[in-house]
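Priority: low. Protein: Ferrous-iron efflux pump FieF. Input follows.
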Amino acid sequence: MDMRTRAARISILSNSLLVLSKLGIGYWMHSVSIMSEAIHSGLDLAAAAIAYFSVREASKPADAEHRYGHGKIENIAGTIEALLIFMAALWIINDALKSLVRGGHSVSEPLTGAAVMAGAGIINYLVSSYLFRVAKETDSIALEADAWHLRTDVYTSFGVMAGLAALYITGFHWLDPAVALIVAAMIIKAAYGLMKEALLPLTDVSLPDEEEKIIKEIIARHADEYVEFHKLRTRRAGRERQVDLHLVVPRYQHIEYVHDLCEHIGDEIKAALPYTEVLIHAEPCTKSADCPVCASCPEKEKSVPRRND
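Result:
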């Protein structure tokens, strides 16, 4: 079992325990804020299950039907997770507004609920920190989305805890649904960020500027071995990156040397940006005879006449 799959399984286990505990406590206390947190954790559990499926499928190698691999499964999974979070937020808002219209309702044992929320927040913080670390090491969008789900749950859990504590001190029962609305607003904000991050790669958007800068810097290190490069294209599918470009080389250069140059540039890019596939199309220089790079090519004297098709 690889690191990503193990992390996804841990997320499923922790979310299952939290959903059951929040549902039980929320039902017993008649607390809409805790029930909203249970719904939130239920969506986190669904997200964890989706993340587990997606990292397992995305790890499969390219095949006859998927020549570019299965990386975009992670992006699809992240998009679904974001939609689920939006749905949860709308559900919470509906219940909270109904409760506010009624002026709130009696919540029993608010301090017990606050303690449960504190424990849930600590557990989610530890699990989300672990998921963030694994997501960074393995470059997994699905695990990063799952980690953000849980980290949002940390903030909302502590928010509910503070609301229940304030209710205990003041006796204002409207605080419970009011906190639920704040929870919903935080969930919507997180869902928007996840949706944007997961959806954009499905449209083959270019890699971030900082990553393209790294690629260009690596190519520039070999500037004395080629004439120029152009048509640089980049995209991402899950954790997989695809990079392709045209490299203009001296017209006299031996093909074996050009091949080795392209391989070397590709290897350097892969070392700097893991999980990257690089395709370099080499083409001969068509500049005039006074091209300084072509003129300095040691293979110039061995050159043979070019074909005139």
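The chain has two domains: 3-203, 209-302. The CA atoms of residues 173 and 307 lie 87 Å apart.
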